Amino acid sequence: MSLSDALSAAPLSRFLLPVGDGHVLQVETLGEPSGEPVLVLHGGPGSGCSPRLAELYDPARQFVVFFDQRGAGRSVPAGETRANTTARLIDDIESLRRRLGIARWRVTGGSWGATLALAYAAAHPEAAASLVVRSVFMPGEANVRWFFQGLAEVCPEAWQALAATVPAAERGDLLAALQLRLNGADAERARTAAAAWAAYERAVAEPAAAAGRDGLPTAAELDRLVLKYRLQAHYLRAGCFLGETDFVAACAALNLPVTLIHGRLDRVCPPANAERLHARIRRSRLVWVEGCGHEAFHPAMVAAWRNALLPSADGAEGR
């Protein structure tokens, strides 16, 4: 279903949700109010909800809730790192659930959104009916280092292009070098860092799309990228405020249906991490997507995602 079809099939509501600390979240709901409640958690951190995400759900059967996390997308203040941690995001999700009067919902998300979905369900197991997650990101220093340093051997051209934006002496910790520029007072330096990070991310996650991309970002797009990656760097430098050992232990304590969907060719979130979580989550099932990497909208990934969201896929009940 296209986004235009989704929007015409059911009413869409938008509202702002103040969550404290000066943060106000942008929330949208789509679909049948009496249908299965489904929460959508976007990736990043810091990306915000893409309008294309609506294509992945069924508004005739589901009541779908989207929101931009603190500092992300259209939530304000944009790019704000103050009072912005995973624990605060989990609290925000609960505030949103109570605001909507939902007892239990299916929680979905991709990449960082998958990590947040698992962390939320571990913190509030009574509120999650089931999870469907894609390309789960494993938090912790080792996995962050893989993305910024380890991929130099796997994607050398993309990595070298990113590394070329900082002095040779700083290339041993590209995340630190990029964060320094994103947080600095020099706007042009920050834009250069954000553009390089975005290009690297596309090349690693979606090589076919990256190769076909035309044109350069506008000044406004670059400024939005600065805010996005400033927030993402804030999370990644802190191991997403979770830590790998604690995160895996929390996942092992889950006792609800969990569908893990992962591309066999994922270079951003190595498939071995999905296998590791599957082995620890007792009621999980792991769905491999052949010929697919980290792309959310790869046709094979979309098919696997929609199939996992069918009513009979895990037997979970909504509100």
SSE inventory with pairings:
Blueprint: H1 3-9, E1 12-20, E2 23-31, E3 36-41, E4 62-67, H2 86-100, E5 105-110, H3 112-123, E6 128-134, H4 141-148, H5 156-163, H6 174-182, H7 187-205, H8 207-211, H9 219-237, H10 244-252, E7 258-263, H11 271-280, E8 284-289, H12 299-308
Helix pairs in contact: 2-3, 5-7, 6-7, 6-9, 7-9
The coarse silhouette is globular
Percent strand: 15-25%
Mean pLDDT figure: 93
Uncertain runs: 315-319
Strand order of the largest sheet: 1-2-4-3-5-6-7-8
Describe this entry's structure for a reader.
- Helix content is 41%, strand content 17%.
- It is built from 12 helices and 8 strands.
- Strands 1-2-4-3-5-6-7-8 form an 8-stranded mixed β-sheet, sandwiched between helices.
- Helix 2 (86-100) crosses helix 3 (112-123), helix 5 runs antiparallel to helix 7 (187-205) and helix 6 (174-182) crosses helix 7.
- The two termini are 25 Å apart.
- Mean pLDDT is 93; it is low at 315-319.
